[in-house]
Amino acid sequence: MSESTSTRRPRSGRRARRSLATCAVLAAGVLVLSACGGSGFSDTGSQGSSDGASGGGQLQVLIGSSGQAETTAVTDAVAAWSKESGTPARVSAASDLAQELSQGFAAKTPPDVFYVSSDLFNSYAASGALEAYGDQLSNADDFYPVLKQAFTRDGKLYCAPKDFSTLALVINTDLWTKAGLTDADIPTTWDQLKTVAQKLTGNGVVGLSTSAEYSRLGAFMAEAGGGLVEDGKATADSAQNVEALKYVQSLMADGSYKFAADLGAGWGGEAFGTGKAAMTIEGNWLVGSMASDYPDVEYEVVELPAGPAGKGTLTFTNCWGVAADSKNKEAAVKLVEDLTSSDQQLSFAKAFGVMPSLQSAAQPFQQEFPAQAAFLAGASYATAVPNQEGVSDVITDLNSQLEGLANGDPQAILQRTQTNLETALKSSGS
């Protein structure tokens, strides 16, 4: 899931009620678009595949779709551009995006335009697979800085951020009220979070639950002023990160925080939706999951409580990659510019629940989707997940260590990660 509903407006600037329906069923499809018409979250899908051929005048567009709503929205947007520009285009939804891209790059027949996840960006860029076109875009300065940073290498913006997600605190309002809590109890500090988590725990319900992974616990590190990499150097074993994990341990020690797997759930959203947890920390993809899987659960979304260093959260994003081997680079860049326009991104937001990557789209997005205000607010202080080559493997190992955090040694976990990070960064030349 990691790597996005009543219609009541928020009662304050930092909280909001749920208000979005979302994408539903996965469906197969490869759609061909021509000039005469025709027809976030995840980086993989199950909607068929593409041969990846980048041929002549027809643009090949490969996406990793979260479902039929996303596939249809992107297909329709490309069709409209195709009709207006006179450039035919073919949209395919990948069953395994990373695998299909790797095959296309190896065969020198990649799609012209495709989704690139931030964790794979540096590997693709280092191998020469990506065209560095981002600085050519007229809206390049409008992207959120943290998103631009995720897709910048050697001072060049390689690709346009497609959209993004952040983490926030999600609260079951029925359980909140039953615990005797009110609006005044919404936590804004770690101490307050601990207090409400304890009050919400009991009768088979745990106060807080998340997955046992850096992409959730990393938010606590950010709130403590830490992180895994800073200025290209490993910082995993910093005092700030140790403090963050010890804080999480303290919640586990009093029973108010359990990992989703320990509750028999696959992820935090499931633990929350099934009523096993009163709160979770998830991204805006949760809105769609709740609407489709747990429509009767009333909840609110608020910003994560500030830690010792202030507010913090993590952000996740993809970009629109253009292949260095594409025979249609000029048309590909023009298509991306259209797909990342404010109007088009707001249309995607309505269709499948993503948040626009343009700062200028923030106000209209918030007006349209007040329930997502807390997610959007995180854009101004979010930290991106490190994306240097080899770091994803280090994070995978860290996740396995975090599974045993309740009885583990935070310092030892982070020292191991520090060693692994230093090796990975040295190998990548960072």
UniProtKB/TrEMBL annotation:
The keyword Signal applies. This is Extracellular solute-binding protein. Keywords: Signal, Transport. InterPro entries: SBP. SUPFAM superfamilies: Periplasmic binding protein-like II (SSF53850). GO terms for molecular function: maltose binding. Pfam families: SBP_bac_8. The lineage of its organism: Bacteria, Bacillati, Actinomycetota, Actinomycetes, Kineosporiales. Residues 1-35 form the signal peptide. GO terms for biological process: maltodextrin transmembrane transport; maltose transport. GO terms for cellular component: ATP-binding cassette (ABC) transporter complex, substrate-binding subunit-containing. It comes from Quadrisphaera setariae.
